[in-house]
Amino acid sequence: MKKEYFYKFLVPISKELALLARELEYSVFSSPRMMLTHARTLVEDIMNRVLKSEGISAIACSGLKDRILLLHSYGLLPSNVQDAVHIIRKLGNDAAHNTKSFRYSEALVSWENLFVLIKWYVEKYRLPDFEMPSYQEPSLDSANTYDVQELEIRLNQWQETVLQKVTEIAGKSQSNVALKEKIDEEEDVGDGFVVPGDTILRTITYKGQRIDIPFFLRDAFLLPQRFQNSERFMIALGGVQQARIMSELPSDLEGMASYVKRYKEENEALMFKDLCTFIEEERQRRKIILKRQGELFLFFRTEYIIMTNELSQISINEESFKGFPNFIRQMRNDGIVRVGQLPQELLILAKYDRVGIGTVEKLYRQIKEKQM
After folding, report:
1. What angle, 0 to 180 degrees and rounded to 10, lies between the N-to-C axes of helices 32-54 and 148-158?
2. Is residue 200 helix, strand or coil?
3. Which residue range(s) make up the domain with 109?
4. Alpha helices (H) along 164-305
5. What is the mean pLDDT of each run of 10 residues along the chain (372 residues)?
6. Is 304 helix (H, G, I), strand (E, B) or coil?
7. Across the strands, what pairs with 298?
8. Are residues 332 and 268 in the same domain?
9. Residues 206 and 278 reside in one and the same domain
10. I need a surface site. Which of 2, 33, 66, 269 has the fewest CB within 10 A?
11. How many CB atoms lie within 10 A of CB 194?
12. Structural domain contains residue 191
């Protein structure tokens, strides 16, 4: 069972801070550079929150160092907290600009100093009677299961949205009452704790409609047979090296028909509809795979079969599977002689000569009967 992240207790105070602290914890052992760079961002966020609480305008501040000095000039930062934020800031600056390899030990130094800052902030500004948990170092058991690129996307998204909002507020002249009201307005961002792979990578639109693309589908193969209403359009686009994988799709599908002859706007609309279905099916499949890790599957659209050892050993021949000898012959010519050698995505088999989706479905139904 995965170890709980240390700063979960921050959720009632700020879901945004809890989310960032969790990502930093998970990145200590997967990407020390990333942890160091974005720990500096967490410091800047807390500095801005303190400025808002105190009703101090940071409009003249150009960076984190200026904000630290501003708070120091008001006598608000204890010496141990000031030392801690400077250590985090310097390590973060180094990680952002230096191409050297960074060590786990450096990330752990930053993590330790974050504890000093967060403890002071929580006890002074948010929960005066709160008893902070004892300091705890991240462990390899709690290392994140995100791809490093996905983790970077998540941290950058946090920096671009949350920190921008906080910085804009900090730069405005407001009364102490207004500032107090604003800092207490925590946007409901949900729990924010997305399953690895589900981070939104980008958005694709079509005539005012939009669909989010999760990270796990960033380079997914767009099998034309999965696009029920636009299969021929997808095949035609593939012929001109378009729409073969998710990353080839433009941010707006309007105008895709211009790449191939004899296709029109209505084909684009059907393609977008099928894309939405494809993504939803993939999400559902992924939930099944994550829920039953270690299992082997055969998928046909939204249906699936669990591959047991007994099922995998069944021979693919005319005696076992009735009604499509030509299909069986073509598979066996390609070395697919047992059920266990079938592709996880059965619709791939519709590539064979005179084999349609209906024939593949018949194979799927017969395999399912044998399993039952």
Report:
1. 20
2. strand
3. 6-183
4. 164-170, 176-183, 231-239, 265-291
5. 75 84 87 89 89 87 86 91 94 88 92 95 86 85 65 75 55 41 39 70 95 94 94 95 95 96 96 97 90 86 89 93 95 94 94 93 94 80
6. strand
7. 305
8. no
9. yes
10. 2
11. 16
12. no
CA pair distance 245, 264, nearest whole angstrom: 21
Contact 204, 271 (CB under 8 A): no
Whether 237 and 256 have beta carbons less than 8 Å apart is answered as yes
End of a domain among 294, 324, 356?
Answer: 294
Between the alpha carbon of residue 186 and those of residues 23, 134, 162, 302, the distances in Å are 19, 26, 11, 39
- Residue position matching structure tokens 């009735």: 322
Residue with tokens 């030990």: 105
Whether residue 333 contacts residue 316, with contact meaning beta carbons closer than 8 Å, is answered with no
Helices (H), 171-264: 176-183, 231-239
Is-contact 117 111, C-beta < 8 A?
A: no
d(CA 315, CA 310) in angstroms, rounded, equals 11
For 201, the enclosing helix (H) or strand (E) is strand 200-206
- Based on the domain organization, do 176 and 202 belong to the same domain? no
User: Side chain identity at 269, as an amino acid letter?
Assistant: A
Number of structural domains, the chain? 3
